[in-house]
User: What shape does this take?
Amino acid sequence: MKIIKPKDGEILDIELEESLLRKNKEIAEENKKIFNQYGIKAIDILGSIGSGKTTLICQVVKKLKKEYNIAVIAGDLTTKIDADLIRKNGAKVIQINTGKECHLDAQLVNEAIKNLPLKDINLLFIENVGNLICPAEFPLGAHYRIVVFSCTEGPYTVVKHPYIFKEADMVVINKIDLAKKMGVSLNKFKKDIKKIKPSVPVIGTIAKKGKGIEKIVKFLKNA
Ligand code: MG
Ligand code: ZN
Assistant: This one.
């Protein structure tokens, strides 16, 4: 079957994209320096809309808010639904509304951290915009990236998004109670993930019920 791919001739676009990504990387390094300077552990949470990123963050915040001073940067196109939810669970929240932009970039995060009381924070979650594609290309300066996907996203979620799973420091398979109903196999998911990144820890959760959250908590404490 004929496969259509982008042409090499689109040089202008490629140059533009390269300089954009280079600039983003520079600012990401700057962000990381700021996090290190203030002793902040920063975690980028990536995953599609409805995968359970916000629920997961809320559950982790609940478990860790006594031990850590937690802040969350919530990325979203236009709403503040997630930010309000997270705030209720006991974290400081800064909202970034990206408008039409389908991912967070390092510059937006840089602006957000200027609005946080950095001295009073030692754990920061950055909830990326719901998307498994372009956030892979835009590091934000976080120390770790946790990729979340749910069993409801179908059997090919991993194999169709190799770039983002390559970037993951931990993979969370959420809504594992729905695996059977959805006809997906957790073992197959794990195999697919390990093929892309053999070293990455993979855990299963039912975030809504708090199941599996302690494994994320343990990862974060040792991180
Ligand atoms: Mg969310
Ligand atoms: Zn994007």
Remarks:
- The helical segments are 11-37, 53-64, 81-88, 106-113, 162-166, 179-182, 186-196, 213-222.
- The first strand starts at residue 41 and ends at 47.
